């Protein structure tokens, strides 16, 4: 029998339906793979007992012909999603041993549809990071290495555990979240497919909040089809999240293989950065040619405020984070460090519980919201955000169906290589992805090639609000042309 | 704009994060690097631009003003570091 962990979700669905194997066998194969890959540090909590129970339940349902769309499909869940009775930490020491008495809406929909929980996946602390190095559980290792090198590379972040686990076949797909690029950048670093849906498409209820006006959940998977299958289960209106949008969830999978003939694809000139590596430039034009060959029309477009997206983000996101993270005070849950009065208890708890990056962002967020600075920083950034969104609206108003850009300015880098002296060096990783969050748009990252050192590179497609289907159709064209990339197993 | 050591201490206190004297210069450098980076926003013309308040143009749905959950004190205090009889315990606040 072929290795069950190498199947796609679509293939596993077929195998389960035709009784070629059971959900229990599929889950067991993944549990074995997870155990053998602990060196990657992708999982921060393995839940094998729960997984076997859920797989058994899925087998019973499948036998009765009642299996849901994800019946028996084993998934990993980013540790930002609250899972009932299963430790959820956001990979922060301050949440300690938090055991949620509730389930996030997104994960509850996955279980409703029959999916199996393998465990909780590593991420940057509170999803703040682009390399998964800020996790209190330590960094995640990318299954990809430079050709002929043993250097340990980051999988990107913040959904580094999700990307690494999917790329290394430690789950068939994973949940992830994206505030500035946290789904798409790690997907690009690991040759996986990641989609950040339109803001409001997935409920944020039960997901540990980072920056509420930017956070969105989405899947990471090995193919565009698998991502589409997962998206359908994850999306949908939720009365518990007032920002979730009450519109019907389409069958995203039906968009896979749909013709892209006649679609106008925008190529934004502002994404052509000075000093951009030639291989990124090459990949980008190759991607454009693939779409053209499939019948799409390429048009140059302008998004004039692109360069201001990242600085505006580093005001808006920390401001919202400083407000959201005010709840970690050592009173209702998580860590408590004693102090001689209540204020000192708060200060000691938060000093000990937050890592360096989180502390930095809470401080900068507190500063830009403080009296006398609000107008100069926060209000100005929110106005710039309006302009960034308008850039995209103007572009779509001209009939552009989607915009093609590189996903990241480079391939994966080594652990400890970036951001040591200047935090901004790390932030620049999100230069191509952050605009999408600022404008609330959907964006997909699809593997498209490799750099000269054999590391995967991805392309990003940015779509109109709630038009994820077009992104799946275009993403599939790129995937068909580029082929799939699998990391050689060394662990 | 940039922050001095006094401001770093003031922000840290506002954010309720204890910062030791030894950490201040380092934090000051990092915060100033971030502030220098966002400084470029001052060159954008924002005259007459509305600040974004909601990224998706939509009416916020409101639920009916009725009790729809409750009687779950056990679940609420389950994760607390210190409790007594369904109350959260904190260090003495009033002398």
Automatic annotation (TrEMBL), chain B:
Catalytic reaction(s) noted: L-glutamyl-tRNA(Gln) + L-glutamine + ATP + H2O = L-glutaminyl-tRNA(Gln) + L-glutamate + ADP + phosphate + H(+); L-aspartyl-tRNA(Asn) + L-glutamine + ATP + H2O = L-asparaginyl-tRNA(Asn) + L-glutamate + ADP + phosphate + 2 H(+)
Subunit structure: Heterotrimer of A, B and C subunits.
An example Gene Ontology molecular-function term: transferase activity
Keywords, in A-Z order: ATP-binding, Ligase, Nucleotide-binding, Protein biosynthesis, Transferase
Gene3D superfamilies cross-referenced by the UniProt entry: Glu-tRNAGln amidotransferase C subunit, N-terminal domain (1.10.20.60)
Transmembrane parts of this sequence: none
Free-text function comment from the UniProt entry: Allows the formation of correctly charged Asn-tRNA(Asn) or Gln-tRNA(Gln) through the transamidation of misacylated Asp-tRNA(Asn) or Glu-tRNA(Gln) in organisms which lack either or both of asparaginyl-tRNA or glutaminyl-tRNA synthetases. The reaction takes place in the presence of glutamine and ATP through an activated phospho-Asp-tRNA(Asn) or phospho-Glu-tRNA(Gln).
GN (gene name): gatC
Domain of life: Bacteria
Pfam families per record: GatC (PF02686)
Family: Belongs to the GatC family.
Entry protein name: Aspartyl/glutamyl-tRNA(Asn/Gln) amidotransferase subunit C
GO terms (BP aspect): glutaminyl-tRNAGln biosynthesis via transamidation; regulation of translational fidelity; translation
InterPro entries linked to this entry: Asp/Glu-ADT_sf_sub_c, GatC
EC numbers on record: 6.3.5.-
EC category: ligase
Record carries keyword Transferase: yes
Keyword Ribonucleoprotein applies: no
């Amino acid at each position: 029998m072929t290795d069950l962990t190498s199947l796609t979700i679509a293939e596993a669905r077929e195998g389960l339906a035709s009784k070629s194997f059971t959900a229990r066998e599929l889950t067991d194969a993944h549990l074995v793979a997870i155990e053998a890959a602990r060196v990657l540090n992708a999982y921060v909590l393995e839940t094998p007992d729960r997984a076997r129970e859920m797989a058994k339940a899925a087998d019973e349902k499948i036998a009765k012909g009642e299996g849901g769309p994800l019946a028996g499909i084993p998934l990993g869940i980013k540790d930002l999603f609250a899972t009932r009775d299963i430790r959820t930490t956001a990979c922060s020491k301050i949440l300690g041993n938090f055991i949620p008495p509730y389930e996030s809406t997104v994960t509850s929909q996955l279980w409703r549809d029959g999916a199996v929980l393998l465990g909780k996946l590593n991420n940057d602390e509170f999803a703040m990071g682009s390399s998964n190095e800020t996790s209190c559980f330590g960094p995640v290792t990318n299954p990809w290495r430079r050709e002929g090198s043993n250097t340990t590379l980051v999988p990107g972040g913040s959904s580094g555990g999700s990307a690494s686990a999917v790329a290394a076949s430690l789950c068939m797909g994973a949940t992830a979240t994206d505030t500035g690029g946290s789904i798409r950048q790690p997907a690009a670093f690991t040759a996986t497919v990641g989609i950040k849906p339109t803001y409001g498409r997935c409920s944020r209820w039960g997901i540990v909040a980072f920056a509420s006006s930017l956070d969105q959940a989405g899947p990471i998977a090995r193919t565009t089809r698998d991502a589409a299958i997962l998206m359908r289960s994850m999306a949908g209106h939720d009365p518990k999240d007032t920002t979730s949008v009450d519109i019907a969830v389409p069958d995203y999978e039906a968009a896979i293989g749909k013709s892209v003939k006649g679609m106008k694809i925008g190529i934004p000139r502002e994404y052509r950065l000075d000093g951009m590596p030639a291989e990124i430039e090459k990949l980008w034009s190759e991607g454009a040619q693939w779409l053209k060959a499939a019948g799409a029309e390429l048009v140059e477009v302008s998004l004039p405020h692109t360069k201001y997206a990242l600085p505006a983000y580093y005001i808006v996101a920390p401001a919202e984070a400083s407000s959201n993270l005010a709840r970690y005070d050592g009173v209702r849950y998580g860590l408590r460090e004693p102090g001689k009065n209540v204020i000192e208890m708060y200060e000691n708890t938060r000093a000990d519980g937050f890592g360096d990056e989180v502390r930095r962002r809470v401080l900068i967020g507190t500063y830009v919201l403080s009296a006398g600075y609000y107008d100069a920083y926060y209000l100005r950034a929110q106005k710039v955000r309006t302009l960034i969104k308008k850039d995209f609206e103007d572009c779509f108003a001209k009939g552009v169906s989607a915009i093609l850009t590189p996903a990241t300015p480079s391939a994966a880098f080594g652990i400890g290589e970036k951001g040591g002296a200047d935090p901004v060096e790390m932030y620049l990783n999100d230069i191509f992805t952050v605009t999408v969050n600022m404008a609330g748009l959907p964006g997909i990252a699809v593997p498209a090639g490799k750099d000269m050192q054999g590391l995967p590179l991805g392309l990003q497609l940015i779509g109109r609000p709630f038009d994820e289907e077009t992104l799946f159709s275009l993403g599939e064209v790129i995937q068909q042309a580029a082929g799939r990339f699998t990391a050689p197993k060394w662990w | 704009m940039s922050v001095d050591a006094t401001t770093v201490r003031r922000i840290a206190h506002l954010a309720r994060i204890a910062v030791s004297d030894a950490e201040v210069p380092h934090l000051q450098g990092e915060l100033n690097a971030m502030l220098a980076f966002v400084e470029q926003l001052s060159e954008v013309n924002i005259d007459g631009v509305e600040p974004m308040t909601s990224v998706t143009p939509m009416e916020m749905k409101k639920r009916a003003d009725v009790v729809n959950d409750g009687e779950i004190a056990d679940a609420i205090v389950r994760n607390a570091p210190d409790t007594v009889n369904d109350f959260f315990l904190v260090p003495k606040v009033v002398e």
